[in-house]
Every structure is written in structure tokens, then in C-alpha cells.
From TrEMBL:
Residues 119-171 form the RNA polymerase sigma factor 70 region 4 type domain. Residues 21-87 form the RNA polymerase sigma-70 region domain. Keywords: Sigma factor, Transcription, Transcription regulation. This is Sigma-70 family RNA polymerase sigma factor. Belongs to the sigma-70 factor family. ECF subfamily. InterPro entries: RNA_pol_sigma-70-like, RNA_pol_sigma-70_dom, RNA_pol_sigma70_r2, RNA_pol_sigma70_r4_t2, RNA_pol_sigma_r2, RNA_pol_sigma_r3/r4-like, WH-like_DNA-bd_sf. GO terms for biological process: DNA-templated transcription initiation. The keyword Transcription applies. GO terms for molecular function: DNA binding; sigma factor activity. Pfam families: Sigma70_r2, Sigma70_r4_2. It comes from Jilunia laotingensis.
Amino acid sequence: MDDISIVLQLKKGNQLAFTTLYKKYGVQAFSLSFKYLCNKELAEDAVQNLFMKIWMKREELDENKPINRFLFTVLKNDLLNILRDSKSNIFVLDDCLEILNYIDGEDTEAQDFDREQVEMIRSAMDQLSPQRKKIFSMKMSGKYSNQEIADRLNLSVNTIKFQYSQSLKQIKEWVRECAIMLLL
């Protein structure tokens, strides 16, 4: 079934056309969402929201315009809104732990991480001061407790905790800004 037929059937409320549309574009929509959100659940929610909007607005669709452009424009706008919503603090760096372990070389299994996603997080880590980067790397390795890091670096435990939390905050903000710029 081509896109024009799908849209025409969708406008009539045909659920099979909706399923066909989902099967045709759902994986692409998820990949794009995950690339920018770095969170499987948020990416799934974004895709679900996208297709819910399509179903709700199905009667307004124009069969003469490419449905894929409409789909990805709606998705892009939703992703931008999610990334810009700093009040809800949706982007959580811990959701990228697998990527960080991959970057550190600890996860040697083949991963399906997008090259841009890995580079975005690597760039964010490179923005840290040398001291924060050292603390962050030691903490992320999982090999050292806060006390052990403090002892090795001759710092207080509170300093380690503060520097680590500030590192997370800085990386989260950098990645969020990069994701927004890539979407624009």
C-alpha cells in the first residue's frame, strides 16, 4: 500500500491503514527519538505520542502531501519540546550509562549506538575541567567509592560528591543543547 492509499484509508478511520503506517515508519521514528533522547522509554513514549496525534488528526491529513514529512515534522517538534523542557528535567544522564561504559571501553559487546550519540556524550565529557573529568571517570568506572576517590585525590568526600554532581549537570546540559542544535 502506498502512502497516498494509506492516508486516504486512514482518513476513513481504517485501523489496518494505521497499522500499516506504524509498521512503515515506527522503527525510523523510534531510532530518531532514541538518538536525541538517549532513553528507550522516552523514545517509545515519543513514538506513541506521534502516532496518537496522527490518529487524532487523521481527518485533517492531506493525501497530496508526503505523510513521512508530516510525521517527522511532528516528531521533531515533540523532541524539541521535550529537550527544551528544563523544568521537567527529562534528560537523565544515567539513562546513557550504557553509552558511557561503551565510551570507557568497559562494554565490549557490539552495541547499536548511533555514532553521533556517542560523539555527543564524548564531547560533553571533554568539556569538563581536568579535575572534574578525573573524578567523573573514576566514579563512572564503578571501581571506587567516593571515599576512595577522595583519598586518592587528597580531597574531601563532600568535594567529590559536589564535583561529580556538577559534572553530571554539565554533561546533561551540554548533551541537551547539542541534541537541540542537531534537531534544528
